[in-house]
Specification:
Layout (H helix, E strand, L loop, with lengths): L9 E4 L3 E4 L2 E4 L2 E4 L6 E2 L21 E2 L1 H4 L8 E4 L4 E6 L11 H14 L9 E3 L5 E3 L4 E2 L10 E6 L12 H18 L6 E3 H4 L7 H4 L2 H9 L3
Parallel strand pairs: 6-10, 8-12, 8-13, 9-12
Antiparallel strand pairs: 1-4, 2-3, 5-7, 7-11, 9-10
């Protein structure tokens, strides 16, 4: 039995069959969540899935935490699911050329946990240059990417998009738009609340080569893919 940090307070999977005329419900999952803002410490997650917020409608290409070899979170985790803003970041390190798939994501998590002393990787999702995207800190948990973090879902583009460095490729941009469209619909977030990190915090992030594209990207989110 092991402790996996806080992904959700409790989940009980029910395998039942209900019959009422033509109505049948099978394999329902009941998820019990703690109140928003609640801090929990040691919860045993050995018999439950990592995330309570799995959704069959998520864009293709998701790499779950187990897929990139994530470490278990440490310390207290705080619930926060009332997202009002999506914050776009870039990693700066690694650059697009330095990207090594899950190895790069693990390195980011190590830096956040060991150097910054955070409970886990700071972002909720990270988007690779090839269009894969990685589950970071679970949805429903307060991130560590743009203080004060409350109500802010963090999406990170892997690459250095500073002026004169990487440019945002077609595939990576398309995945970003897909994710923005998905999360805006899921949480009823207005497209004007898609922000660059620098809009909310003293920072050059997400780099000029992404930040200057955000007006176009917001328009894409409003339209068909």
């Amino acid at each position: 039995m092991h402790k996996q940090g806080l992904w959700f307070l409790a989940a009980v999977s029910l395998s039942i069959v209900l019959s009422c005329g033509d109505l049948r419900a099978q394999d329902l999952e009941l998820v019990l969540l703690a109140p928003l803002g609640m801090i929990c410490e040691d919860v045993d997650f050995s018999v439950v899935e990592q995330s309570a917020f799995k959704d069959q409608n998520m864009p293709e290409g998701l790499i779950r935490r187990a897929g990139w070899g994530a470490r278990f979170p440490k310390g207290d985790m705080v619930f926060d699911r009332n997202y009002k803003t999506i914050v776009v970041h870039h990693t700066q390190t690694p650059s697009v050329l330095g990207y090594r798939g899950g190895e790069s994501v693990r390195a980011i998590q190590d830096y956040h946990m060991d150097k910054n002393k955070w409970s886990d990787i700071g972002y909720h999702y990270l988007v690779g240059p090839e269009g894969k995207y990685y589950e970071g800190r679970a949805e429903g948990l307060l991130g560590s990417h743009c203080p004060p973090n409350e109500g802010r879902l963090g999406l990170n583009l892997i690459g250095d998009f500073s002026k004169g460095r990487d440019t945002l490729g077609t595939v990576q941009r398309r995945k970003l738009v897909e994710l923005l469209k998905y999360f805006c619909a899921k949480y009823c977030i207005r497209t004007e609340e898609i922000k660059g990190h620098r809009d909310l915090d003293p920072s050059d992030c997400p780099g000029d080569n992404v930040y200057n594209l955000l007006p176009q990207i917001r328009r894409q989110v409003c339209g068909p893919l």
